[in-house]
Amino acid sequence: QFKLVESGGGLVQPGGSLTLSCVGSGLPLDYFAIGWFRQAPGEEREKVSCISSGSAKTNYADSVKGRFTVSRDNAKNTAYLQMNNLTPEDTGLYFCATFEAWAFCEAGYGQKHWGEGTLVTVSS
């Protein structure tokens, strides 16, 4: 059974950095585009970033452009989200998801698989 597992979350001070990982097991991740999403307490889930299966295409929410970088290593079946200059507004549960086509990830719907998330808390 295919499974996605996120890790790397934690408590960080404003201005700090974290790198999240999303590891797939049971199926090669290189077939899928990968999306990163987050959900703050009491708010709707928000798409943060997408990366295409071969890393040729990426996109970012306006709120994270210039601060977050998405990448992947298909040999390790892992996707990453490097987050710099974090603010309290970045606090939330971060999820990764697979998409069978870039267009679905870009649109933010049609996820094939979800992870359970990793919690990021930005606070002084």
What does this structure look like?
With 124 residues, this protein is mostly beta strands. 5% of the residues lie in helices and 48% in strands. Strands 2, 4, 5, 6, 9, 10 and 11 form a 7-stranded mixed β-sheet that branches. A 4-stranded antiparallel β-sheet has the order 1-3-8-7, with no helix packed on it. Strand 4 and strand 5 (46-51) form a beta hairpin. It starts with a strand and ends with a strand. The mean pLDDT is 96.
Shape: globular
**Could you list the spans in which at least 5 consecutive residues all have pLDDT below 50?**
none
SSE ordering = EEEEEEEEEHEE
Structural class: mainly beta
Number of strands: 11
Strand content: over 45%
Helices, by number, come to: 1
* Average pLDDT score: 96
Portion of residues in helices? under 10%
Radius of gyration (CA) equals 13 Å
* Sheet having the most strands: 7 strands, mixed
Span between termini: 40 Å
Keyword list:
single chain, 124 residues, mainly beta, 7-stranded mixed β-sheet
Task: Spell out the blueprint of helices and strands.
Layout: E1 3-7, E2 10-12, E3 18-25, E4 33-39, E5 46-51, E6 58-60, E7 68-73, E8 78-83, E9 92-99, H1 102-107, E10 113-114, E11 118-122
Parallel strand pairs: 2-11
Antiparallel strand pairs: 1-3, 3-8, 4-5, 4-9, 5-6, 7-8, 9-10, 9-11
Structure at a glance:
The chain is mainly beta and 124 residues long. The chain has one helix spanning 102-107, and strands at residues 3-7, 10-12, 18-25, 33-39, 46-51, 58-60, 68-73, 78-83, 92-99, 113-114, 118-122.
